[in-house]
Write a structure and sequence with these properties.
The structure holds two protein chains of two kinds. By secondary structure, chain A is α+β, with helices and mostly antiparallel strands. Chain A contains eleven helices and ten strands. Chain A has a four-stranded mixed sheet with strand order 1-4-5-8. In chain A, a hairpin with a 2-residue loop joins strand 9 and strand 10. The longest helix of chain A is centred in the middle third of the chain and has 37 residues. The longest helix of chain B has 37 residues. Chain B folds into three domains: 127 residues, Acyl-CoA dehydrogenase/oxidase, N-terminal domain (Butyryl-Coa Dehydrogenase, subunit A, domain 1); 106 residues, Butyryl-CoA Dehydrogenase, subunit A, domain 2, CATH 2.40.110.10; 152 residues, Butyryl-CoA Dehydrogenase, subunit A, domain 3, CATH 1.20.140. The chains are: A alpha+beta, B alpha+beta.
Chain lengths: 377, 406
Amino acid sequence: MDFGFNEEQELLRSQARDFLDRECGSARVRELMATEDGYDEGMWRRMVELGWTAIPFPEQYGGLGLGIVDLVVVLEEMGRHTTPAPLQSSVALAGTTLLLAGSEEQRARLLPGICDGTGRGTVALVEASGRWDAHGVQLRAQQSGDAYVLRGEKLFVPDVHVSDWMLVATRTAENSGDGLTLLLVDSRAPRVRTRRLGTIDQTRRLFEVGFDDVEVPADAVIGAPGRGWAALRRGLDRALVAVSAELCGTAQRAMEMSVDYAKTRQQFGRPIGAYQAVSHKLADMLVQVESAKSLTYYAAWAVDNDVPEAPLAASMAKAYASDAARWVTGAAIQVHGGIGFTWEHDAHLFFKRAKWGEATFGDAAHHRARVAEALDL
Amino acid sequence: MDFSLSPEQQRFRDDLRGWLHENLGDFAPSGRAQSAETAAPLETIGRRAQVEIERGRAWQRRLFEGGYAGISWPREFGGRGGSIIEEMIFNQELAEAKTPPLINVIGLYMAGPTIIAHGTDAQKSRYLAPLLRCDEIWCQGFSEPNSGSDLASLQTRAVRDGDRYVINGQKVWTSLAHVAKWCILLTRTGGEKYGGLTYFIVDMESPGVEVKPLRQITGDAEFNEMFFTDVRVPAENILGSEGEGWRVAMTTLMHERASLGVGLQVRSRIALEELRTLARATMEDGRSRAADPLVRQRLAQLFIECEAMRFNGYRGLTRMLRGEQPGPEGSINKLMWSEVNQRIADAAMEVMGPAAMLSPDDPDSPGEGRWSYLLLRSRANSIEGGTSEVLRNILAERVLGLPRSR
């Protein structure tokens, strides 16, 4: 029984923090969020050199053979810095899904690129209904001879502009398996249309992706035909943990900024942190940040060890971290007063990042419903 | 990171489960008494019928004879010499098995560890063994009518008179005072606020000690008021030394929050499972209340928060296993627990609908009255053992390093 990080993980954390403090301060984040691509390829290369993209993959694919627990360490630090980079989409979501559901041939072909940063993937799941479950998937993939033909639209697809391939959840047959088929599609294939969405969190890039009769071969199926949801689920659980970890880092940094400010900002002749109306709000931030971390770390351990309650643990972490990050980053603006509402101050970067994390992969209410289901309520 | 138990810890748990299976028998929960236990874990048993006190004594004696008293106490003091993980397993398993609460909880988790930390050899050999056997029950005299959160402002005076001290004053919120043999009593011996406090072990059978029951909003009288009138206590009954009382009292309070946390979380989760059963069984317009999306959201949220407390607790234990002292972070779980427990009661009331208007002793009150009892009893959870306001002060000042608030 040991619920803490080991020495290597602590080292990874301090290395990540040093790197991001140096390369990804808020001035740099602001520059990058104003660019079209929204990230810095040079910074990305250096993250790759630090091994971050290789963390959760086996050595045979060029990975480090570590787990989500280790990835969580890095993602927390990226959340702290509101780092713009396609690590979340390519490694935590697309990479782990391919690792868990892809064929040996697919893994051997694509994972080395994910690990060395030369190839990037993403996942296209949500549609106009806004649902994050299997029922929300209506995009048709019509079987035609040896191929599938995709027709329809996906929304909120992360980082498709810098991806080489995407895993697309499609509806293939009503009565076989879960009715879905997960297909590997070249992001630059003919008749794939992308449109960048305006995002409240400018450090994130999300897209509408249209498929106007896009044809993929039968060997593009990930997992088995008619078993697309089963193929996605375990990767999605890992992505839930990854987003929760980012939310923890974002909330923790917003709390620390608020504490620092409350110690120095004077009103009525005293630091505002000496007033309980302020200090108790900060104490409540601490309670929520620590609890979000506890649930996230446990969920990371649970998915790494594939224990039966792993999906439940992932939903618990995502539900709690979503609420906590929204409240903590909002309270941080309040503690800072007027300056916290300005564009110049960083408080809004955290508030906006928290909103992205809250709404992506299902919000707190969605995951509480999943928890209720798992508890057989 | 590893959540599995070591082979030794698994053996400890399995042995304990087997032992409980064989020994719980006539101590197994029944009817209304159990509902009160589920609802009121922290404050132990308080003033209940003598028969229950005797039952509690007998249960703890049986635990002692089975080798399950003072799990993490050193062997030389009659304990089991186990780790804090075993202490945690012990508390979890007892809560799961719905055993009677440990009647000598103040002795086991507050007075005992304080004596081990600060006591003389003579004190250790006099007090610890009868405490573990439950031959002598302990109570705690800290709070006073005018000294609640500001504990160090207390006014109960101890004045030296030769080799004795003469104690005068009043204490309040004292569980078990009417059945206790010993009281850990915090008194004022000097003028300095913190440096003027002295910690005594007082014989409750001494002339001049008077105990009066205090009736609560539940109608029960778990607590007492204690009056001390010229009570003469030998100087050798000081724990630590004169003027050192605050430091010694901090040991007591840290142990209270660190040790009891795990059991509380488990009891809240058990209450939540019972609430799930209630929600399923309660029908509205031909539909189970458990099918109502709002009810499901509330119960799921409470379950998530219970789990968060469990993992917060594990992280705290891990820090202790790595050699750190139990820190002020322990206040996080106490703060969360009191609020979760109150919201469990609120959710139960919502599930119950108009039956929420029934008193706990009405025969039609759902769950044999446990939910209505919990509603009332849980209001004390955010006051006893440190009010939520004081706990937020502790977190703000001692964890976040904010200036002292006023």
